[in-house]
Design goal:
By secondary structure, this protein is an alpha/beta fold. A 6-stranded mixed β-sheet has the order 1-5-6-7-9-8, with no helix packed on it. The chain has a 5-stranded mixed β-sheet with strand order 4-3-2-10-11, covered by helices on one side. The longest helix is centred in the first third of the chain and has 11 residues. The radius of gyration is 16 Å and the shape is globular. The structure holds manganese (II) ion. The site of manganese (II) ion has 6 residues, from loops.
Amino acid sequence: MNTKPQFGNGVEAQHERFKIDSYGKIYIVGDVHGSRKILERLLTDLELAGDDLVVFVGDLVRKGPDSPGVIDLVREDSRLVSVRGNNEQKIVRGDKNPDWLRESDREYFQSLPVAISFDEVLVVHGGIDPQRSLADHTVEELLTMRSPHGDGYDGPFWYDDYEGPYRVFFGHTVHDHPVEREHAVGLDTGCVYGGTLTAYDYRNDEFHTVEAKTHQERANSKIVDPA
Ligand SMILES: [Mn+2]
């Protein structure tokens, strides 16, 4: 099966489909949030070859110490691509204007796709509502989905009830270790909160993690144990 996801009008133009046959290894990486040093350590560990591909789940920026450094690293390397996270979206909308922001950063965030797909894989920042068709989702929903029929961090989470057909890779909701399910893989392991930065190796079905050395307080009620 190789089914291209069908989004609604507002989203489809911001959906990027990859043919991956010509790529080597493929990694999907969780929320970085301006943590350039830990990202550099992860990329060093992965020993990328020229034909490898790294897909970020968004939220490259905000909260951590070096957002521009993360942007520069990702923009300057054509092997690194990202979907847009809700933190990039806040800047695109003008709701946030951090003092590190350069005008070209906003244009870059605007250029980021809302969804990336290949094979049966779908990468979005937040997630999807299992009770509705993909075509019904707005950009905002795909970027912020957490508990569509529940209550924020109390759940139930969208991925508790999602049964495919896609395998959705997402960030946005911080977990103390990756969510690993048949149809949902959660990669935000809170590197900016003293957790880890996680990469999933798609070809080998393996997780790589790098320990963070930065630390920002986050209430335990906002870190989810997927077990
Ligand atoms: Mn995030």
